[in-house]
Amino acid sequence: MSCKKLLVYLLILLATFTFKLHAVGENLHHQHALPSNLADHNIVESDFSKALKKGKRILQAENWNVWGASPIVGDDGKIHVFYSRWRGTHSRWLSHSEIAHAVADKPEGPYTVLGTVLTGRGGNKWDADTIHNPTIQKVGDKYALFFIGNNLKDASKYDGHHASTQRIGLALSDSLYGPFIRVGEDPILEISKDKKQWDSYLTTNPALLLHPNGEYWLYYKAWDRYNDQMRKMGVAIANHIEGPYIKHEKNPLVSFSHLKRQVEDAYVFIHHNKFYMVMRDMGVIHPHVGLILESDDGINWSEPMLGYRTSVEYINEEKVERMERPQILFQNGKPTHLFLALMGGKYNTSSAFIVEIDQSKF
C-alpha cells in the first residue's frame, strides 16, 4: 500500500472512530433525558409537575453530604428544615449519618444551621449507627420527627446485608428547637416475621399523613428481598402518634413488580380533597425523575404520572443528578415548595434542593 493510500485509509478510520465516539456520547447523554414527546411514550405529565418552577440548592456545606430535607413553618414564622448530614464519601450515610436542624426567614434561605438533633445511640441499640431520612410534622401541641436507624453489627442476624437492620423510629418534642426524645426503646414500625411478607426485610423512608378522620397514617417503604427483590410502598395506621401502628391488610399499596420496576421515598399529602403520593422513580417512567399518584381514599392509587422532571430542568447544571426523598413545604395550608435531595453541587457531594410550586397551576 502506497503512503498516500495508507494516509487516506487512516483518515477514514479516524473519521469512523470519531463518529462512533460521538454517537456513544450522544447515547450516554440522551439516556438521561426525558423524551420531548411524552404522549407518544404514554407518559402523562401531572399538573403538579407542570406547576414546578426553577429551583436552587440549599444547605451546601464543605465536607458535608446533605440529604432528605423535611421543611415545616414554625410558630416563630421561620422555615425550619430537618435533614440528614454526614462527612466523607456518600456511602457513609449507612454508618455516620445524623439529623441536623437549620432555619431561615424564607424557603430559599439563607439557612442558619443550629446543630445536631439526633445521632446513633451506639452499643446494642437498634439505631446504634446511623440516623437518616427525617420527616417532621406538628401533631397537636407536639412535633413528631420520624427517622430511620440501623445497627450494622446486627446484620449478621439476618443475611449480612447492610440494609437488613434498617427500621423506622419516632422522636417527639414540645418545640422545634428540641429536645427530641425517642418514643420507647424499639422501632415504631418493625418488620413482619413471616419472610413471605413483602416487608419482612426492612421498614424505611417514613411519611406521616394526618388523616382527616383523626388517625395517623404512616406510609413506608419495604424491600421485598426474600421474594421478588422489588421495593414497594405500604401504610400502617394508629390512633395515637406513639402507636401502635397496624399494617393495612391491602399492603403493599403501590408496587410495580409486574413491570420489574421499583419506587421509593414516597411523600403523601392531601390537596383539594384528594390524596397525592409523590416519590422517586426507579425506572417506571425514567430512573432520574419523580412519580405522582392520586387517590380518593389513600389506599387505592391511580396509575403513575410524571411527578417531577430531571434535575437539569430546574437548575443551570449540565449533569443530570439523582433527586430523591421529595417532601413538601406547606404555608397557610397550601403546598408552596418541593424539597428534594440532590447529588452533586458546589462541593461535589450532595445538598438539599427546593423548587417553587406555582399555585395557579396546582
Automatic annotation (TrEMBL):
<keyword id="KW-0624">Polysaccharide degradation</keyword>
<keyword id="KW-0119">Carbohydrate metabolism</keyword>
<protein>
    <submittedName>
        <fullName>Glycoside hydrolase family protein</fullName>
    </submittedName>
</protein>
<feature type="signal peptide">
    <location>
        <begin position="1"/>
        <end position="23"/>
    </location>
</feature>
<keyword id="KW-0732">Signal</keyword>
<dbReference type="GO" id="GO:0016787">
    <property type="term" value="F:hydrolase activity"/>
</dbReference>
<dbReference type="InterPro" id="IPR023296">
    <property type="entry name" value="Glyco_hydro_beta-prop_sf"/>
</dbReference>
<keyword id="KW-0858">Xylan degradation</keyword>
<dbReference type="InterPro" id="IPR052176">
    <property type="entry name" value="Glycosyl_Hydrlase_43_Enz"/>
</dbReference>
<keyword id="KW-0378">Hydrolase</keyword>
